[in-house]
Specification:
Blueprint (H helix, E strand, L loop, with lengths): L3 H12 L17 E7 L14 H13 L4 E5 L12 H17 L4 E4 L3 H9 L4 E4 L9 H8 L2 E5 L17 H18 L7 E4 L8 H9 L1 H5 L6 E2 L22 H13 L4 E4 L2 H18 L1
Helix pairs in contact: 2-3, 3-4, 4-5, 9-10
Length: about 300
């Protein structure tokens, strides 16, 4: 904990670049950003209700940074399978005070939302990234917000809202189809004025994808990287990890070691970022890899 100010300053420098230019990659594990998940919700699948109160949310954000997060991804609407949408006002009441406080403390913030109005207000409050699981499809005004603010935009592969997404989890060749749909969505955004250097792509693990399809997506990582855009890998604690590296049927938090393993494999392949509930195991494996690589150079 004693080196937290130094670590925070270093990570702030890595992720807080001018919005007109992409972040510069560095030849180390530190080049993969660790995005810590902050769910200010009562019903998220892993930690719903734990950080819904303002004080608890801010405290957890500080803990995420202390544990190794470079970015805190603040969300006020659960996207767990089967979840229903929440009113816009409720989402904003949950997230905006937290975003303002974290920005005031110098913590890089991403806003996890499908709502353009929430994204716009969060960016005005200082959020550096908009992370939209729908890639701008749920709210057509999201494109304007991202285009006009120039903020980083995480564009996830999406086939519908959480209450019906598994009905659309039908693929002949999952990697090829998801890649094509992501590439087409990015092309649409660029035609609409979003700059290519703003975009980070996310293959959407767990969204409209069942069990083995998620492993196919991970195994096909290079196919997504070949699009030529930064890639975010968001596997943390998801259902397809059940029984992999932990007992089958165990609580989602028991999947953190499997999550860290995926983070390491993603970083080794050049991922822009990994999104995790508990940054500590992921930061540990990335630091080990960094030390290994440093000894070889």
């Amino acid at each position: 904990m004693s080196d937290l100010p130094t670590r925070r300053a270093r990570r702030l420098a890595e992720v807080s670049r001018p919005r007109s230019a992409p972040a510069t990659r560095v030849p180390s594990a530190a080049g993969t950003r660790v995005m810590g998940i902050l769910n200010v919700t009562p019903d998220s699948f892993s930690d719903g209700g734990l950080h819904q109160a303002y004080d608890a949310a801010v405290a957890h954000a500080r803990d995420l940074v202390a544990a190794g997060a470079d970015i805190v991804d603040v969300g006020g609407e659960s996207t767990r399978p089967g979840s229903e949408r929440v009113p816009l006002a409720v989402e904003q009441e949950r997230v905006l005070p937290v975003v303002r406080q974290l920005v005031a403390e110098g913590i890089p913030v991403s806003i996890d939302t499908m709502n353009a109005a929430t994204a716009e207000r969060a960016v005005e409050a200082g959020a550096a990234i908009v992370n939209d699981v729908s890639g701008g499809l749920a709210d057509p005004d999201m494109v304007r917000v991202v285009r006009d603010t120039g903020t980083r935009f995480v564009v996830m592969h999406w086939r519908g809202h959480s209450d019906r997404m598994y009905r659309n989890a039908e693929y002949t060749h999952a990697v090829d189809e998801v890649r094509r749909e992501v590439e087409m969505r990015v092309a649409e955004l660029i035609v609409l004025g979003v700059r290519q250097e703003q975009v980070v792509i996310d293959p959407g693990l767990g969204f409209a994808k069942q069990g083995a399809q998620n492993w196919e997506i991970l195994a096909g990582y290079e196919r997504f990287a070949s699009i030529g855009l930064p890639v975010l890998v968001a596997a943390s604690r998801k259902r397809f990890l059940d029984g992999v590296g932990s007992p089958e049927g165990a609580a989602p938090r028991e999947r953190d070691l499997a999550t860290a393993a995926i983070s390491l494999l993603a970083a080794e392949r050049g991922a822009w970022g990994v999104r995790v509930h508990d940054p500590a195991p992921t930061r540990a494996v990335l630091d080990v890899w960094d030390a290994w690589r440093a000894a070889r150079s």
